[in-house]
Write a structure and sequence with these properties.
It is a single chain. The chain folds into two domains: 152 residues, P-loop containing nucleotide triphosphate hydrolases (Rossmann fold, 3-Layer(aba) Sandwich), CATH 3.40.50; 108 residues, OB fold (Dihydrolipoamide Acetyltransferase, E2P) (Beta Barrel), CATH 2.40.50.1020. It has nine helices and 20 strands. The protein is elongated and about 75 Å long.
Length: 341
């Protein structure tokens, strides 16, 4: 069983810190996900390919730093979203090519079965659907059987069947001794595919707290707690898992057509509580009910725009510069909070 350490990985670009130094230790086979944006993901991919793109840091396998690209290729397999296939050859021949390239212990039949393409083996690759092609790409790392398999956006735009096949495949790789690392910009994908999810951004690497809903919890001992302290996690349900967000991560909350969503870094997550319940829970953290359908994190508001005498908008200080409506009746309350006459 191999151990992996991403030791003090750091990236700065022209004086801007993409991510500060972090260390990730992997001591047993597992399925992990790192949720981050495209620029950081590309840096991570290049680093896993053995290219010198990091400002600082080392990749250590079984206690020894990997220094040559050949060593990276042997220890780390990378499947990129942009990886291509030979469109004109048959599916079976493409799989056989992967199998022979890595002298895989898995037979061609086993590899086809792993991605559920047995019945499509006689077709040309170009005749496959997009989802089937994405599954075929995964065969290369199955054949390679590297101790660490890195997949970029493995389930992006694929159908539900393919998502299930990918999840089962990752579980099988884990059971056979490999660690799977998913790099994605979609939190739902990260939660569905991985046991542990990390968020990597300019403030560093953070573990995202998740909990499977059918997990049995041991009874907690009753402790005397100081009254009045707000619970500082806001849950969101994604299939069978709960994602727990810290209030500071939430930009705003929206109620639309009877459904409430938490907006975090440009993504929307279904809320467990009603808008009124969230307003009560989040008020101590600087959230404000700016409209009957919106609650906003005032720490993230950059600008208050006046459209007409009775029409206002809050502009957030995020990448999308989202605009949140501010009702006339709430404008007076907001001015009072800000100490503006």
């Amino acid at each position: 069983m191999a151990t992996l350490s991403l030791h003090q990985w750091e990236k700065q670009n022209e004086g801007i810190t993409l991510f500060p130094a972090f260390t990730m230790e992997v001591t047993e086979p597992s399925v992990l996900a790192v949720y981050t944006h495209t620029h950081i993901r590309e840096v991570l991919l290049q680093a896993f390919l053995g290219r010198s793109v990091l400002s600082e840091g080392a990749t250590i396998v079984n206690g020894d730093p990997l220094k040559k690209r050949r060593s990276f290729t042997r220890e780390v397999g990378v499947c990129r979203l942009e990886d291509g296939l030979y469109e004109r050859i048959r599916v079976r021949d493409q799989v056989r090519l992967f199998q022979q390239l890595y002298a895989s212990s898995w037979s061609v039949t086993e590899l086809l079965s792993a991605v559920k393409l047995q019945e499509r083996a006689h077709l040309a690759v170009k005749q496959l659907t997009y989802s089937e092609k994405q599954r075929l790409k995964l065969v290369r790392l199955c054949a390679q059987r590297a101790p660490f398999c890195v997949f970029e956006e493995p389930d992006q735009n694929v159908d539900l069947e393919t998502r299930r096949i990918i999840a089962r495949l990752f579980q099988r790789l884990q059971e056979e001794g490999s660690t799977v690392l998913v790099l994605t910009g979609n939190m739902e994908s990260a939660v569905l595919l991985a046991e542990n999810v990390y968020r990597l951004e300019s403030s560093g690497l953070h573990l995202v707290e998740t909990q499977t809903e059918n997990e049995e919890e041991e009874p907690a001992e009753v402790e005397d707690k100081e009254p009045g302290l707000p619970f500082d996690k806001i849950p969101s349900r994604v299939n069978e898992k709960l994602i727990l967000f810290h209030p500071t991560e939430i930009d705003f909350i929206e109620s639309l057509q009877g459904e409430v969503h938490l907006h975090v870094q440009g993504e929307a997550f279904p809320a467990v509580f009603t808008l009124t319940e969230l307003e009560e829970r989040l008020q101590p953290f600087g959230f404000f009910r700016c409209h009957r359908s919106y609650i906003v994190n005032l720490q993230n508001v950059r600008e208050i725009m006046t459209w007409t005498r009775n029409s206002y908008t809050l502009v957030l200080n995020d990448a999308s510069q989202a605009e949140i409506p501010l009702s006339k009746t709430k404008m007076a309350a907001l001015k009072a909070m800000l100490g503006i006459k």
